[in-house]
Amino acid sequence: MSEIRELELEEFKQQVADGAAILDTRVPDIFERGFIAKSLNVGLNGPFEKWAAELLEKDQKLVIVADNIEESLKRLQDIGFNNISGYLKGGFNAWKEDGKRFDMVISIDTEEFELDLNFREETVIDVRSRDEYNTQRITEAINIPLEELSTYEGLDKEKYYYLHCGGGYRSITAASILKQRGFNLLKNIYGGFNKIKETRIPLTPPKPSES
Q1: What is the DSSP code (8-state) at residue 98?
Q2: Do both 162 and 84 map to the same domain?
Q3: Which of 53, 71, 97 lies at the terminal end of a domain, its last residue?
Q4: Residues near 187 by Cβ (< 8 Å), separated by ≥ 6?
Q5: Most-buried pick from 14, 32, 120, 158 (CB within 10 A)?
Q6: Which residues 6+ apart lie within 8 Å of 149 measured at CB?
Q7: Same domain (yes/no): 93, 113
Q8: What is the pLDDT of residue 119?
Q9: How far apart are CA 24 and CA 36, in angstroms?
Q10: Which structural domain, as residue segments, surrounds residue 130?
Q11: Would the pLDDT of 6 be above 80?
């Protein structure tokens, strides 16, 4: 693995100002509590290689925020990411402890989600694949697969959106993408569709998944 520089805060900020994208590889449940604005979250605890390759260009200039920097760099380089300018020394904690502003994702459990849907008319975005969505879904949810979210047109920054996936991993990545695009009226659903199925939220009848 080639040597990649540890960046002090000001160096990190300069790299971002010069066009580097911020990839944050922390676990989604940690990422959501505080992250550097415009960061993309692809957590090491899920299908990291799949989504890093799907959502980022291999030659894209990157700076990394991580709890496990060695694993992050190795897994990125193993799949062909070689334009990594460096990683933030001390990770997100260094950013926060320096008093710099940061962003967050609001997450709610399915009980609160069910109550909200009874009294509000917000749009639910299901970021699972089309096959998952067509197998069974929340009746009124719209489907925008995660890989299409960065270029999807038709959402309104003045409206509130609820996000869910299958188990909670992809929806935080989705929230980070929408935050990058200036959408801030978002709520993530803990546990995703696996937990939603345990509620009384109206769902379509289940269909056998196609092999």
Answers
A1: T
A2: no
A3: 97
A4: 106, 107, 108, 113, 116, 160, 161, 162, 163
A5: 32
A6: 127, 174, 177, 178
A7: no
A8: 79
A9: 9
A10: 107-196
A11: yes
CATH number of the domain encompassing residue 39: 3.40.250.10
Domain boundary among 66, 97, 128: 97
Q: How many domains does the chain have?
A: 2
Q: Is residue 91 domain-shared with residue 147, that is, in the same domain?
A: no
In a domain, residue 204? The reply is no
CA-nearest of 194, 183, 187, 169 to 31 is 169
Judge whether 208 lies within some domain. no
How far apart, in whole angstroms, are the C-alpha atoms of residue 119 and residue 114? 9
pLDDT given for residue 211 in this prediction: 47
Reported as a single tens digit per residue, the pLDDT across 25-72 is: 999 999 999 999 999 999 999 999 999 999 999 999 999 999 999 999
65, 22 Cβ separation under 8 angstroms: yes
Cα dihedral: 93, 96, 100, 103 (round 10): 100
* Contact predicate 88/64, CB 8 Å: yes
187 and 144 share a domain? yes
The encoded tokens of residue 141 equal 């949810």
From CA 112, how far away is CA 99, in angstroms rounded? Answer: 32
Strand partners, 103: 35
Q: At what angle do helices 48-55 and 69-78 cross, to 10 degrees?
A: 60
